[in-house]
């Protein structure tokens, strides 16, 4: 072969670094496409209604207060950390004190949450197809879409939590997870700075690492151990205690506290008092009796939705927003949970362990809190990660490849059917509304 031809042939063979670069570039392109499409869809009709509704009446005034040149006491909405409200305040400053200014950040973080689902799906399944299916299921779930179109705090905490999950799962598979776990702590700290429920994902990560380190300390070995086990005695050989403290304690704490500085300055006394107030408001048993309250065992069964908006319009039609969840996705997810639990116990599969951990952790944590007052929108993080459980169950061998996409199509059909109670700009009739309210407990 002529030397010049040989050189041209050799240069066309991709090396490992070019493959990694191409893979990273492809992931970035797909993530950007998901973000752009999701952002465009979530912005449709975002200014309807043109008034504050449901809990916007708490968070928008708190964001407005942050824009004042001299913030007067008392601080509005002190029972939640400030980051999400600071982001809403920046949007009001940029887009004006109106529906777009109030709600644009929610659409932005709703789109980012779907990017987080995609990245976590890639880390879990190492498959573009399965990651994209998880994104569609999370979107068709209805919960994420409703929460991404209202100026509340939950979508902000969810988006950061999903990025934390993606980083943790990536690190879980590596021998040297320090960087990935540090990114987990960073994202978790931002999630907690939006709403304290972000602690549940961080606690899940800490519990997983602690369980593995405890078993390693006991020198536990599986007689038929393999590379796909959720626990291995040789996992993370260089990950030390100081790494653990830095990644899962110091980084989240510093990031979290930094978000209070624009509001409280560097006063240690004020920062401590702010934490005391949040703790008191979130751990004291609330008075029962709210119209839409529900208990945590009922959330997976969609027993009691929350009516965010119900307006009768001049022409006899109605504009409604109901936080409910897509039954065609969330009810089958309970069967998928049983399948994943069986696989984790019987075959010790790592992916089964991880999808279970990030569903059960953010969900069962609510059982530990001494609160009487609960709402189904607290189920949003677990309902979103249920998409991973479903993808896992639907792609196990010997399930046919078409089964996953058939299920996605069914979920999409359910989402379309629920649009009249998902977005206020999709006006509907009272008859249609009544047909969609299938059970007496939904009314």
Shape: globular
**How much of the polypeptide forms β-strand, as a percent range?**
under 5%
- Averaging pLDDT over every residue, what do you get? 91
Compute the number of strand runs. 2
Termini separation comes to: 79 Å
User: What are the low-pLDDT stretches, counting only 5+ consecutive residues below 50?
Assistant: 1-17
Radius of gyration: 23 Å
Helix content: 55-70%
What's the main sheet like? 2 strands, antiparallel
Strand order of the largest sheet: 1-2
Q: Compute the number of helices.
A: 18
Structural class designation: mainly alpha
Quick overview of this protein structure:
With 443 residues, the protein is an all-alpha fold. It contains 18 helices and 2 strands.
Write the layout of secondary structure elements.
Layout: H1 3-11, H2 16-43, H3 56-66, H4 83-95, H5 99-125, H6 128-140, H7 143-147, H8 154-172, H9 178-192, H10 199-217, H11 241-258, H12 261-264, H13 268-283, E1 306-312, E2 318-323, H14 327-347, H15 350-364, H16 380-394, H17 401-417, H18 430-436
Antiparallel strand pairs: 1-2
Task: Give an overview of the whole structure.
Helix content is 61%, strand content 3%. It has helices at residues 3-11, 16-43, 56-66, 83-95, 99-125, 128-140, 143-147, 154-172, 178-192, 199-217, 241-258, 261-264, 268-283, 327-347, 350-364, 380-394, 401-417, 430-436, and strands spanning 306-312, 318-323. The protein contains 18 helices and two strands. The chain has a two-stranded antiparallel ribbon. The chain starts with a helix and ends in a 7-residue tail after the last helix.
């Amino acid at each position: 072969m002529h030397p010049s031809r040989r050189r041209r042939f050799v240069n066309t063979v991709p090396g490992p670094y070019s493959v990694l670069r191409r893979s990273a570039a492809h992931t970035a392109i797909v993530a950007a496409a998901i973000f752009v499409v999701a952002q465009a869809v979530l912005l449709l009709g975002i200014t309807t209604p043109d008034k504050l509704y449901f809990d916007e009446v708490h968070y928008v005034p708190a964001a407005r207060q942050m824009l004042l040149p001299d913030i007067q006491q008392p601080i509005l909405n002190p029972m939640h950390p400030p980051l999400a409200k600071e982001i809403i305040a920046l949007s009001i400053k940029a887009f004006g004190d109106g529906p777009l200014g109030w709600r644009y950040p929610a659409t932005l973080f709703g789109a980012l949450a779907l990017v987080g689902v995609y990245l976590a799906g890639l880390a879990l399944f190492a498959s573009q197809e399965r990651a994209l299916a998880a994104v569609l299921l999370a979107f068709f779930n209805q919960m994420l879409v409703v929460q991404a179109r209202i100026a509340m705090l939950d979508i902000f905490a969810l988006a950061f939590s999903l990025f934390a999950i993606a980083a943790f799962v990536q690190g879980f598979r590596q021998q040297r997870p320090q960087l990935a776990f540090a990114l987990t702590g960073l994202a978790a700290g931002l999630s907690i700075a939006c709403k304290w429920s972000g602690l549940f994902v961080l606690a899940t990560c800490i519990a997983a690492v602690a369980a593995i380190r405890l078993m390693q300390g006991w020198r536990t070995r599986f007689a038929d151990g393999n590379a796909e086990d959720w626990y291995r005695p040789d996992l993370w050989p260089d990950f030390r205690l100081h790494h653990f403290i830095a990644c899962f304690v110091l980084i989240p704490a510093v990031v979290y506290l930094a978000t209070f500085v624009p509001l409280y300055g560097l006063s240690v006394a004020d920062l401590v008092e702010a934490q005391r107030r949040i703790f008191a408001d979130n751990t004291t048993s609330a008075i029962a009796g709210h119209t839409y309250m529900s208990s945590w065992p009922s959330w997976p069964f969609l027993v009691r939705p929350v009516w965010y908006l119900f307006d009768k319009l001049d022409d006899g039609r109605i504009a409604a927003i109901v936080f409910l969840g897509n039954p065609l996705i969330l009810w089958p997810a309970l069967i998928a949970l049983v399948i994943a639990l069986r696989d984790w116990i019987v075959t010790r599969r790592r992916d089964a362990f991880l999808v279970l951990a990030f569903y059960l952790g953010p969900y069962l944590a609510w059982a530990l809190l001494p609160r009487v007052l609960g709402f189904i929108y607290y189920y949003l993080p677990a309902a979103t990660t249920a998409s991973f459980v479903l993808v896992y169950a639907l792609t196990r061998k010997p399930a046919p490849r078409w089964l996953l996409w058939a299920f996605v199509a069914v979920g999409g059909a359910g989402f379309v059917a629920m649009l009249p109670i998902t977005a206020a700009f999709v006006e509907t009739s009272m008859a249609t509304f009544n047909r969609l309210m299938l059970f007496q407990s939904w009314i």
